[in-house]
Amino acid sequence: MALLPEKPTSQTVEAIYSFWAGKQSQPRAYLGGSVIGRECERQLWYGFRWATGGERFEGRMQRLFDRGQREEAVFVSELRAIGCEVYDIDPATGAQFNFKAVGGHAGGSMDAAILGVPEAPKTYHVAEFKTHNAKSFVTLQKDGVQKAKPEHYAQMQIYMHWSQLTRALYLAVNKDTDDLYSERVRYDATFAKSLEAKAERVIYGKEPPHGISADPSFYKCKFCPASPVCHTNRLPAVSCRTCAHATPEPDGDGRWSCAKWKADIPLDAQRTGCPEHRYIPALLKRWGEATDASEGGNWVEYTSADGVVFRNGPRGPGSFGSEELAAMTPAILRDSLANEIRDEFDGRFVPVEEAA
């Protein structure tokens, strides 16, 4: 039997997906209220430190994420149509109401504040709008937002805490059927304060906290974007956020300082880092233990479990800058021929794609 030809790919669809694939966003400068409810503080720490370099999504997924943004305007229009007062724009900025906390290193944007909710028309509510697929929506209807979507529940709690409102309205839509779900949520001061305390631990922690599991096959770890840097020898992306010289300061508007250059670090500079970048030693723990260091020489020396000694420092025999280390594996440290060639020709190890 002859094989049937594969269904041709639509050039129009591919062009649309390509458009969305090109709209990748950079990692946030702050720890967002939308993620503070995540269970694993280690994942949050890696995210805040840009250790994964930021997640990249295919065009279809980028478009799906934007669907949630587009739905917000629909909800606002519908709420106004039934007589609610909806405050979705801060007149001072022309954008959503934005909160900052923990020295400006934590924050988020509230979808809206609402007055006139039919169940409690005299009470202001934090509004949180979400889209769900059919399976998720059924679970939400059955269990309620706190159990079905704990991250969404935490997001509302921290926004109530920061806005000093005591009620929230969770309004969700089933994307498959357009069924709606709403739930009023009461402010839980104890829980909200615990979330802010978690944010402080994550933001000011000098090294990764314990994760929810040391087993990379654990189901919550398998699909975590931080899994490669958490469970393997892969080193985090190079930026000021992964550098031992950089510190998030508590007294400014998200201010970071650099001990090497004795100056504040602008956001754009944080994303690229500089040649003096030296990894936070805990990030090299799978490669070796820090056994020596020189502030003046700007190097940290490591010794592996099998006795291999190397430095994260200025380029030289047995000494590698952070960008070079990020392109390597521990096995390369043990490849004497590769290192002899590197030293002989004043070379450096680079990522495979760069070498190609």
UniProtKB/TrEMBL annotation:
**Gene3D superfamilies recorded for this chain?**
3.90.320.10
Q: So which domain of life are we looking at?
A: Bacteria
Task: State the name under which the record lists this protein.
Answer: Oxidoreductase
- Species of origin: Luteibacter yeojuensis
